[in-house]
Write a structure and sequence with these properties.
Layout lengths: L2 H11 L3 E2 L9 E2 L8 H11 L4 E5 L6 E4 L3 H5 L8 E5 L4 E6 L3 E7 L4 H14 L8 H9 L8 H9 L3 H16 L9 H9 L2
Antiparallel strand pairs: 1-7, 2-7, 3-4, 3-5, 5-6, 6-7
Amino acid sequence: MESKLIYIASEKLKGKIKWPKVSDGEWIYFGAGNEIKNDIVIEKINSHFSEQLLYVSWTRQDSFQTNRKEVFENIKHILGVQDFVIWNSSFSKAIEFNKIGVLRCGKADMSNISTKRQILEEAINDYPKKNLGTSKELLFEIHKIIPFPITYPKLKEYSDNLDLTKEAWIAESVESLLQLFGGQEHEPLERIIDMLDNQ
């Protein structure tokens, strides 16, 4: 996934993350400057993320894809210096790092129907064809590109191959649709949307 798309998805979805409190607050101190406690950062990454593919959202130009094994080596030069977020591949779990040397771990509550409905509404609104008003109209447009059933791997592959210079709005819409799979990667998108429309 291209840097700009990682950054846009991160900015859009950060507000949907629930940050549970640990001891007196959400944030955990890991150190700053020459006193960064690498073991805290590595432990939090390994305990929070189970999948290998990860995204680091830093800036529009410098965000990148990595994996759980290499992520620490890829971020250690910005730890305690820059604000950034590490995401899992479905953008449903995140670790936010602040330049003052604190981090917090959180995840989206994808069991919350109103959260999923809001994400679906964003997908409809972001799609570049004007006057799309319903999820069925959005699915009709997506089916012109991806055959039925729309599975997570098919949609992810399509997303990874989009040309952002020409298809940025489609990419934002597709990233929102990928969010709907959170915890339901085995279900086709059509069934997920149908369940949302009928609840």
